[in-house]
Amino acid sequence: MGPEDDSQSYEINKGNVNISNHYFGGHFRWTEAAGDEPKTTEEAQERIDKLYESGVPFFSKEMIRFAFEQCQRKPPRGEMLYTKDITGAMVEFESQTGDVKKENEEDGDEVEYILLDPVLSYDCRAHLKHHLWWTGISEDRPPFCSLTIQHPSLKFKTKTKEPVNPWPTQPREKVSQIFKGHCQDWRDTEVPKKLVQTLTMHTATHQITKIVGLALGAISYDYDDGPRSYIQHALLLMLGEWLRERSGKEDVKCYAQDPGYRSVDSEVLKEHGIEVINDPRAWLEIDDESIVFSVSPNVPVKEIVADIARPAVIIWERVGFEDADQEGKRSR
């Protein structure tokens, strides 16, 4: 269904509904016929590994910027967008902006998703290989792309056109109060003191000018993961304060990027000197004078950062199974 069918009936709802947790990918295809295709799943996985282990970057600022500039144009339905697969071959994607996708819920109710302007999506080597384990090799297989394009969506009930809000946001005043409480509780633990000692000890010879937080989670949502997101932002806030004291400058840049942020998150975090930015700006901001902080993200932060920069400080969890191959033994 195209956007011309009944999109006007949704307009009254769009301003007050959050983006759903359902993203829609399109059909990717090479702009020219690919040659020497792998015949088996094992052969395809081996090719991915060989490229990775040879040092070929799966991500670069140039490729991210190239794809993002196309998305920024807000391409209409039917327009082609371009990216590259991990071999460097050109791949095309057809915009589906405005399309309406219908699905049935578990309770039998029909819902509709309106596809919004395209955004970037990132896949690491492990994900590309895992996908092959599920799908195998076929004649019309999609290219192996570490950077793809997807459509976020808004969700509505088909009968009433009523928006379905996956994560209702809390009032700004409540979010601000809760954030201040979690910040204070966290400061009262030994963790901040130990972290400051570690940073001070190991960064004496490093030039640091900015902090970038990635996928720390929204603090405005009323859901069970809220406390973790608050604490992660409390740590980000502490990093900003430490860097200001270290540099003697008040205009230290402290960024946070997460697609889940809403206006409430931006307003509350801004009060504390944290600037919310949109994807993919964080990747483009990261350089050798950055502190990068990310914990349990659902995007391949480690792989992207390893390919695009060598930050002065990186704070994240241990490399594990999800970051490497099936055996969990190899990670760039």
TrEMBL record:
Pfam families: SRR1. It comes from the Eukaryota. Residues 196-318 form the SRR1-like domain. InterPro entries: SRR1-like. This is SRR1-like domain-containing protein. The lineage of its organism: Eukaryota, Fungi, Dikarya, Ascomycota, Pezizomycotina.
